[in-house]
């Protein structure tokens, strides 16, 4: 069996999917914090010099995996891999948030688009030279960017899926 280690929890003002920003760029000003397992505090060395960080986390309340979904900004069914919907075969999320400060095992963050209490799997620095690429195509999103779609299509979260053991300690 594969396993992932939960290294902490992400806390935000968002208790349910409805009302949670759909991307960090839509979450301007939404603040939160990370409570990192104290065992990982040495891994934070030099992270405070970065303006933004990538958070890799477990969609612990995502609905069961689907191969096709109707994305938030569209009305057409799309393949899950062409979307950022959480109903994925491996419910792993990725968000770039602003790092405001680090105090011990607490990281203050902003531009948070993550549900409160979400398990954190990893942190990586955001480096524009490596993480920002000019693109020529945006697939189906090119046509959907100017459309407005109602929030009512968000599905309610369900219980976590079985199959992958998430290791944690008593603090997470």
Low-pLDDT stretches are 148-172
Strand content: 25-35%
The percentage helix is under 10%
Q: How many domain regions?
A: 1
Number of H- or I-type helical stretches: 2
CATH class: Mainly Beta
Strand order of the largest sheet: 2-3-8-7-4-9
Radius of gyration: 17 Å
Structure description:
The chain has 172 residues and is mostly beta strands. It has one domain (3-128, 136-158): YaeB-like (Elongation Factor Tu (Ef-tu), domain 3, Beta Barrel), CATH 2.40.30.70. It has helices at residues 128-131, 141-144, and strands spanning 3-5, 8-11, 31-36, 52-58, 68-69, 78-79, 92-103, 106-110, 118-125, 165-167. A six-stranded antiparallel barrel has the order 2-3-8-7-4-9. A hairpin with a 2-residue loop joins strand 7 and strand 8 (106-110). The longest helix is centred in the C-terminal third of the chain and has 4 residues, at 128-131. Residues 148-172 have low confidence and may be disordered.
